Each structure stands twice: as structure tokens, then as C-alpha cells.
Amino acid sequence: MSATRGWSTELEGLRGLASLWVLVGHISLLTHCHITLISSPGIGVDLFILLSGYLMAKNYVERQHKEPWQRAETIKTFWIRRFFRIAPLYYLLLIIALIYGPWFGEMRDTIAHFYSGTATESSRYSDQSLTNILTHFSFLFGLLPEYGFNTVLPDWSIGLEMQFYLLFPFIMLVTLRLGYAASLIGIMALCCAGRYLLADYYEAFEMPSMILLKLHMFLAGMLLAEAVRRKSLLYVTFALLGPVASVAMGMGVIKLQVIMEALMIVGMAAILWQYPQDSLMATLITLPRKLLNNRLSTWLGDVSFSVYLLHLLIVIPMIAQLLNYTDIEMKSDMTRFLIVCVSTIPLTYLLASLLYQYVEKPGIRMGKRVLKPKLTEQTQ
């Protein structure tokens, strides 16, 4: 365990991997270069979701003695922490996305002109209506099908994340009353039932920005956290009900994604498990842990949120300009993909590093200052 970060440092590497996966996956799709696994950025988002469920549950359980779940102040503190972790960077990039939305729509149309298979409704980028602005600043957009996927940012998942944060303390209170596994599995079942009871509402979303569409994967991450804490293979099995729920909700049509969901759960369990020293599994897991624990992986994890939220603001215009002013469309698919990677990935990570240093970290510090009087009162 990291003494400074408070969690397994492997999780930082996994976050870095997830953001890189989404970045490269979108480049692959927008350059019309299909690469198995890489061309499925939704799998990277699923990894983010699993990590979020895992971390929220792990940290909440570890803090329960000084921050009892039943106290309203605990819930308020949790929400404030999460708001200041997400909102400062999100609001900054949202303003840019809204102001320059029509231009990003033109860039997106340029890409679609060359590769019609990548076409999307570019008018959603240029929606500068008051309703679109208010729903995005209030994080309500994820609940509304017409606004859930309505900017150039991949913010449908940010709205989803904020909905999870809103529900999370109440989910934990339910676990106190009904038991951890029974509660989470029961909520998964309710999500699946809702898929058929509220079929029109579920199906109206172009992306799964509404919490009931993805809550089962957050819950799988929560079950995985308990599996690691208890060293319980049974709870790993419970976590695997997340991919089963994907199939039950009709999301299993993308078989690769469901298989990868299951493999990610098993892989996370294997990496995060505490093995007896000198055991075979401890030896086998050494290399993956080293790969996820090194300074590069940790840095990738640090800037992962900035990379995730920023990357389309760079990738879409860069691809459009390369298509307009070079002969890149005449290159092979793989060559074109590599040219765009070289052109966009360094710039994305450079700007993400600046955003992490000058927006994310100050935002976190601001949240701590807001909470400081409350935390002082709790410790007295």
C-alpha cells in the first residue's frame, strides 16, 4: 500500500492504462483503422468504472471509524471531496467545448467526409442553448437522452460518474442494513429489471450516460474491493455478475466487451490480492505489478483524468487538419493511425500535465480548504 496515496499504487497504473486505451481507441476509430481491442475505447471506460467502484468502496470502508456512514456530515464530506476532484477541470474544458463547439462540429464533419463510417451528428457539438449549458453545468445532462451525449467532450461518462457519487453513500447505508453482497447483487438485479420495465427510457440513450445503464459495473468494482479486503474468491464470483448483468441488459451484443469486463475483474483481483511471500502467485504477479508500479505508470495515472477529458479537443481537429492539408488519406490504415498517434499523443499528455498541475491539484486543495473546518470539528 502507498503510504502517501492511501491505495495500491497498481491502481494508478491501471487508471493510466485506461485513459491511454480510450485515447488510442478514439484515434483508431477516427482514422478508420480497426485494431482488435484497441478500437474499443468503451472497454477502457469500463476499466475506469470498475476502478471507481473499487476505490470508492475501499476508501469509504477504511474511513468508517472516523467518518461513520450514518452521519449526514459524512455524506456531505464525501460529496464535496468528489465535486472538487471532478468539477474544476470539467468546467474549464466544458466552457471551451461550448464556445468552440461549432468549430469542432466542422472538424468532425471533415473527418466524416473522408470516412463516412465515422460520421456522427455534428450538430450536437454546436448546441449552445441555455438548456444544454445548464444541464451540463448542473451534471443533470446524463439523465436526459437528448443531452447525455451533446458536446465534443467524452463527458457522458462524467455525468455518469457524478450520478454514482450521488447514490454511493445511500448504497453503503443499504449494505449496513441488508448486507454487503446481498444489497449490491439486489441492486444489480433492479438495474436489469429496469431495462425491461423502462425499456423506452433505457433505449433512448445514445451512450450509457444514465446511471442505471452502468451501475452494475460500479457495483462489480465495489464487490471486488470487498473480495480483496476479505481475501474471498466468493466475492470475486459476485463481482463477475457485473458482466452477466451486461448480457441480461442487452449490452452483451458486443461479446468482446463483456469478455473483457470479466477478464478485467479477474485481472484486478489477481494484481491486488495479497499473496503469501514466496508463493507461486506472488512470483507470477511480480512482473505485472512492476509494470503498473513504475514512475511512468504512476505519472500516467496522475494525468489520466486530464487526458481522458481533454483528448478529443486535440484529436478531432488534428485529424481533420491532416486530412485537409496532407495526403494522409492515401496512406495505409496503420500508417495513418501511427501518424496521428505521433502527432497527438505527446501534445495531449503535455497539456494534460499542465492541467493536472494547475487545475486538478488546485481544485483538490480548494476542496480540502472547504472541508478543513468540518474535519477539524469531527476530530475534536
Mean pLDDT: 91
In terms of DSSP E residues, the strand content is: under 5%
Described by strand count, sense and barrel closure, the largest sheet is: none
- Quote the distance from N terminus to C terminus: 28 Å
Unreliable stretches, pLDDT < 50, 5 or more residues? 1-6
Secondary-structure element string: HHHHHHHHHHHHHHHHH
Number of DSSP-assigned strands:
0
Given the structure, what is the number of helices? Answer: 17
* Helical fraction: over 70%
What class would the helix/strand composition place it in?
mainly alpha
Gross morphology: globular
**Gyration radius, in Å:** 21 Å
What's a concise summary of this model?
This protein has 380 residues and is mostly helical. The protein has helices at 10-30, 41-62, 72-99, 101-114, 130-137, 156-178, 180-197, 199-203, 215-230, 233-239, 241-248, 255-272, 280-284, 286-293, 295-302, 304-325, 333-379. Helix 2 crosses helix 9, helix 7 (180-197) packs parallel to helix 11 and helix 16 (304-325) runs antiparallel to helix 17 (333-379).
Please give a structural write-up.
The chain is an all-alpha fold and 380 residues long. The protein is 73% helix and 0% strand. The protein contains 17 helices and no strands. The chain has helices at residues 10-30, 41-62, 72-99, 101-114, 130-137, 156-178, 180-197, 199-203, 215-230, 233-239, 241-248, 255-272, 280-284, 286-293, 295-302, 304-325, 333-379. Residues 1-6 have low confidence and may be disordered.
